[in-house]
Amino acid sequence: MELEALQKALPAFAALGASLVAISPQLEKFNRQVRKQHQLEFEVLSDPENQIARQFGLVYQVQGELRQVYEGFGLDLNKYNGDDSWTLPMPARFIIDQKSIIRYAEVNPDYTERPEPEETVAALKAVLNE
Amino acid sequence: MSLTEKLNALKERSRKNLQPEALAILHNATENLKKSGILKMTKKVGDKAPDFSLRGASGQTLGLDKLLEHGPLVLNFYRGKW
User: Fold this and answer.
1) Pairing of strands B53-55, B61-63
2) Distance in angstroms (rounded) separating the CA atoms of residues B12 and B10
3) Which of B22, B17, B42, B3 lies closest to A2, judged by CA?
4) Which of A36, A66, A104, A130 has CB atoms 3.0–4.6 Å from B29's, for a disulfide?
């Protein structure tokens, strides 16, 4: 859902000279499926065992009752992520400038809330106007 | 429909379709994550972004340097298609 919304905003990002990529702990084949399913024209990178997400401070352990609920939904994270860590990144969106400095950071522990892509487009314009 | 509206509609469907026990566990897990202090650990505005080089969906490797070659980068962390 979020990636579809970002796809719609891709021309706006491109018009501002920015690139867009997603990072997911999923195996490449699932990222291929997502790109095809939603006709995504931007890249979805695989982050094995959430190594990069961990460096961004985003990773948490799915354990106890929560893991049981996920398993009850038939969700097998091992299958999707190709490891047995049962870790996930918090949903997050960053703008990184050409000096590798983070200029915008939206992280939310509540996976049901995501910033609108238009908000990120506006933030990008602000960064470029400085 | 905006992304927020779609997410709210999804939340509403979950509320109707899921067992109350499962809903409570999902809700508590989010609250516990908020209280865990994890947000103090995340990268913030002004921090240097960690370097990375990862494989794309077609198997090719793509790194931060390459992505920043022509302009800034919008980087979105995504949990999965499930």
Assistant:
1) antiparallel
2) 5
3) B3
4) A66
Q: What is the ipTM of this complex?
A: 0.95
Contact flag A66-B59 (C-beta cutoff 8 Å): no
CA distance B78 to B67: 18
- The overall longest dimension of chain B from CA atoms, in Å, is 49
CB contact under 8 Å between B72 and A21, yes or no, is: no
If phi > 0 it is left, if psi is from -120 to 50 it is alpha, else beta; for residue B54 that is beta
B21: Cβ contacts below 8 Å, ≥ 6 apart:
none
CA dist., res. A126 & res. A120, Å (int): 10
Q: B16-57: per-residue pLDDT in tens?
A: 888 888 899 999 999 999 999 999 999 999 999 999 999 999
- Chain centroid to Cα A48, Å, comes to 14
Q: B24 touching A, CB under 8 A?
A: no
**pLDDT level of residue A78 (50, 70, 90 thresholds):** very high
